[in-house]
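Quick note —
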Amino acid sequence: MIVIIAALAIFLIVYFYPPLGGKSSAESQRKIQQSPQFVDGKFRNQIPTPMDYSLKETADALIKTVKGNPNGRPKGSLPVDSFDAKAFAEKAEDQVVWFGHSTLLLKASGVKVLIDPVFGTYASPVPYFGPKRYSDKLPAEIEELPEIDVVLISHDHYDHLDYGSIRKLKGKVKQFIVPLGISGHLTKWGVDPDRIKELDWWEEETVQGLTFVSTPARHFSGRGRGDSGATLWSSWVMTGKETNIYYSGDSGYGPHFKEIGDKYGPFDLTLIETGQYDEQWANIHMTPEESLQANQDVQGKRMIPIHWGAFTLALHSWTDPIERAKLAAEQRNTVLITPRIGETVTIGSPEYPSSKWWE
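Predicted structure written out below.
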């Protein structure tokens, strides 16, 4: 009887617990089945991307995780600038504000875009479990944000697609632009299907003069319910009247960066993942040195390192990503922008944040 009850509980959680997400509609499934990226029932990367680990590798990783890293988190809360909604709305120039990890608010060609919004305290489907945010506060709560024209999603992992954040945002967002399959999660969480646009790699959508292009990344998807590879993962190109921006999402290094640069570069600004790497998942996350190479491949003029500064999802020290990125940028003569969380970066300005605030 206990086994039956446990099995029933697991079934109910997997299929009905809202943060785990939902299934794609029939129309979405039709698009998925037609995608060149969807092979043998799953989305695939452009090149082979092994993610199979031996028992020994898994055991070693578990031991390291249990031991932890004494420098894996900041000793205290991080400095956070308060978001000035009035200034953001009134300033004519294109601008971007980093909220930590991969959450960014930008304005380009007057279009307000919120990227991978994760405003929760934990990057996890269960409150009070999983990686906890470093900062005690954010630059702004969702209720304090302006009306958002577009929410842009890279993939459905918990540190990029957050149930609680989407539930709070859905009433103040005009359109969601997402990779194939993501609409199933959003509609389960109450987003109107008419406000969701799903794109395959190389497809475009233009909103008020700002063009979004879904471009390849080297990663994977899934929310832990046996759905690995059921939805697509993307990087994104955003091209406006004055500014060309590239957002990497999560990605291992690969030839897609040069392909994107050749098609859509050069970029005035790149937002490239630089943290949460490990030798055991080198195919799906880049080291900082690879991130700087990716920036060169896409022909980025200036780069903001992201995917760090909020959650510990790997075994390296929390400052390792930015320290290695700065050194690599100096060696490659690359302009690396290092804003504090909440600090506004004006795209196209001759001056950019460059302080070592994490020290």
